[in-house]
Amino acid sequence: MAVAATGFFDGVHLGHRKVIETLLRIASGRGEQSLILSFWPHPRTVLRNGARDLRLLSSREEKMDLLRALGVERIEVLPFSADFASLSASEYLDMLVKDYSVSALVLGYDNRFGSDHLDTEQIASLSRSVGIEPFIVEPAKLGGGCIISSTEVRKALGKGDVQTAAAMLGRSYSLEGVVVSGNMMGRTIGFPTANLKLREPLKCLPLVGAYVSRVQVDGREFAGMTNIDHNGKIETHILDFGEDIYGFDIKVDFLSRLRDEIHFDSFEQLRLQLEKDLRAVRCSH
């Protein structure tokens, strides 16, 4: 038998973690398996519901790593298709019992599923009717009372407020990908940059501008300053680092925002600003 939680879990933020901690506690108390049932791709890409504007807080691989790190015993990623989307909440619950031996279901305060879009209380009532015991978890909140959600994390990133995003995620927001060749302009003024090609193209980018960052490369960690331009280009100057890492995978954690994007009339103006940024980055690490 299994105690389950189900949802997309984008970002695995502190609200998700509250659900998962409850899941683990109940599963342990009942002597049953802890089970996460997630989906891929995001339902909006299949249902064409705002798919053009969809941005993800975690790739599939990142999400799986984060869930495993929390100690969940079994994680199933269900292919989200048009047929899957057509399942009613009742049909989905029947599948949980038949295919996954689910005896209890941990629900977030805003859980919705099924083609009939039942809310949390309706799902809980329906669960009881098919022999699944429901447990509803209250929302996680920031100190100011803001309810933590994937939407609120995206809003914070859209404002460049990576520190509030980190407070909701329980960790720094990060981008991962491979280093690709750029225009080499930074190298000519003494600030070579690693140009990041995202592994997950739909990852949410923080607001255009410059950031204090932390860079993980080849098992090592360095201070960095990262710029995101209006075209979505992501460039990171890694402090005290001179190795050739083209083709390497790197991870960039966003720690704080330095400034807006600035238009420079000359390379000299750019160089002077980057020196000022560098001093700020060194002071912050």
Name a few traits of the molecule.
5-stranded parallel beta sheet, alpha/beta, 285 residues, 6-stranded antiparallel beta barrel
Distance between the termini: 48 Å
- Biggest sheet: strands, sense, closure? 6 strands, antiparallel, barrel
Low-confidence stretches: none
Mean of residue pLDDT? 93
Alpha-beta content class: alpha/beta
Radius of gyration: 22 Å
Helical stretch count?
A: 10
What is the succession of H and E elements? Answer: EHEHHEHHEHEHHEHEEEEEH
Percent of residues in helices comes to 25-40%
Q: Approximately what portion of the residues adopt beta-strand conformation? A: 25-35%
Counted beta strands: 11
**Largest sheet, spatial ordering of strands:** 6-7-10-9-8-11
What gross morphology would you assign? elongated
Please tell me about this protein's structure.
The chain is an alpha/beta fold. It has ten helices and eleven strands. It has helices at 14-30, 43-47, 60-69, 82-85, 89-100, 120-129, 150-158, 162-169, 185-188, 267-284; strands spanning 2-6, 33-40, 74-79, 102-108, 133-137, 173-180, 194-198, 209-217, 220-228, 234-238, 249-259. The strands form two sheets. Strands 6-7-10-9-8-11 form a six-stranded antiparallel beta barrel. α7 (150-158) packs antiparallel against α8 (162-169). It starts with a strand and ends with a helix. The model has no long low-confidence stretch (mean pLDDT 93).
In short:
The chain is α/β, with parallel strands linked by helices. Helix content is 34%, strand content 27%.
Task: Walk me through the topology.
Elements: E1 2-6, H1 14-30, E2 33-40, H2 43-47, H3 60-69, E3 74-79, H4 82-85, H5 89-100, E4 102-108, H6 120-129, E5 133-137, H7 150-158, H8 162-169, E6 173-180, H9 185-188, E7 194-198, E8 209-217, E9 220-228, E10 234-238, E11 249-259, H10 267-284
Parallel strand pairs: 1-2, 1-4, 2-3, 4-5
Antiparallel strand pairs: 6-7, 6-11, 7-10, 8-9, 8-11, 9-10
